[in-house]
Amino acid sequence: MGRTIVWRPGFQSDAMKRVAVLPAIVLIQSCLGGVYAWTAFVPALTRDHGLRMSHAQLVFGLAILTFTVVMVFAGRLLTRWGPRLMALVSAAFFIAGHLIAAEARGRLLGLVVGYGLAAGAGIGVGYVTALTTGVRWFPQHKGLVTGVAVGGFGLAALVLAELVKKWTTLGWAVGDMFYAMAIFYGAVVTVGALLLSRPPEQGAAASAPLMATSQFLASKAFRVFWGGIFCGTFAGLLVIGLLKPMGLAAGLSWQETTRGIGALAVGNVAGRMVWGWLFDRIGRRTIPGSLIFLCVVIAALIGARFSAPFFVVTVALVGFGFGACFVVYAAQVAALYGAEQVGRLYPLVFLGYGVAGIAGPYLGGLLHDWTGSYTASLALSAGIAALGIILTRPLLTQDLV
Q1: Helices in 138-285 by DSSP H: which ranges?
Q2: pLDDT at site 311
Q3: Which CATH number belongs to the domain containing residue 249 in this structure?
Q4: CA-CA distance, 246 to 268, in Å (whole number)?
Q5: How far apart are CA 274 and CA 113, in angstroms?
Q6: Is residue 357 part of a domain?
Q7: Sites in the chain below the pLDDT cut of 70
């Protein structure tokens, strides 16, 4: 007798939705992650609009801080509103922020309100929506899926850096570039949002008791995660914010420094996926291991920036180490507390990145303004990464639950 095939439309629907999730996440993140190409705008802002280096880095840092603060609230709304609506909200903020920044025409206040606050909010809403949705659809592959989900975020800097290079050769002003991003990037985020859907309930895991926020904030795990992500992202963001002007000051050409931005973006994407893959195999040990790697390569950048080949290779390695920060902590939160709690708990850890975002680039720019050199800035970056190694040592020796 032949087998009886039972039609199960719900299963069919879930399977189709699952196929659409990862492409949707990559589309969204590949636009929102353009924030990491901010350094490509800095020469024009300082040269043509008279911004101080520290002011240009302040806008970047404020966008990162807003991004992470908004994530806390967005993570709590995600369960109620669903990923599609949340991603559409992200697109609206992103578009509005870039339009405001375009109208600012290089003025600091407009850049702060548009790019630092509104666009930063859009990035925060979209980031937590994409990350949490991916982890919940693929709970058995937390590290790898987290790497893929945030890999698109890292890839965005490579794409946008090349676009800025092209737009610059065409004689576009910075405001024109922000207009183009509002229109094109906003449309892509909107398409990605429409492809997202709620993940199915996951049996017993979906009904597991939620950990109280106050309990998590009081835990040793939170302190270790927060300290680690703060140090790693402080170190990486300081380098990212200064990358292009630092290379130009060392005598490299515009094209060579642009290749450096692209190399960092490629390293960032590769790092997010490789460190995620490593986490699935060796777990929490990837966290201090990634900080050791980051500290070493940032220290090497002090000398490498004077040679184009070494500059490109070294900043790619910096991106590789930096990329770990956006995978290993989210995956560790999911491993300890369950994938369904990532949207609530991980944004609290991610606030460490926000504080690092306002502190790292600004202090790096300030040190340059004071000393006229980038050596002190890079030394600070490597030193903070070394502090992170110390703060995350409990992951090697103790149970954090």
Answers
A1: 142-169, 174-180, 186-195, 213-217, 220-249, 254-282
A2: 87
A3: 1.20.1250.20
A4: 19
A5: 36
A6: yes
A7: 1-15, 18, 139-144, 149-150, 154, 201-209, 305, 398-401
196-208 pLDDT, tens per residue?
888 776 544 444 5
pLDDT for the residue 9: 43
Residue 165 belongs to domain spanning: 19-200+213-397
Report residue 264 CA to chain centroid gap.
13
Q: 130 in a domain, yes or no? A: yes
Q: First vs last Cα of the chain: how many Å apart?
A: 54
User: What is the per-residue pLDDT for 398?
Assistant: 65
pTM over cut 0.70? yes
Strand spans (E) along 275-318:
none
Structure tokens at 213: 């926020």
207 assigned to some structural domain: no
Q: How far is CA 96 from the centre of its chain?
A: 20
Those residues whose C-beta lies under 8 Å from the C-beta of residue 129, and which sit 6 or more positions away, are 28, 74, 78, 83, 86, 87, 90, 196
**Number of structural domains the chain divides into:** 1
Q: At CA 338, angle to CA 336 and CA 341, rounded to 5?
A: 110
In this prediction, residue 201 carries a pLDDT of 66
Mind giving me the DSSP string for 12-31?
A: HHHHHHHHHHHHHHHHHHHH
Q: How far is CA 109 from the centre of its chain?
A: 24
Q: Would you state the pLDDT for residue 202?
A: 52
Residue type, 366: L
Separation of alpha carbons 69 and 1, rounded Å: 61
| 11 assigned to some structural domain | no
| Token code pair at residue 395 | 């992951």
* DSSP-derived secondary structure letter, 212: P
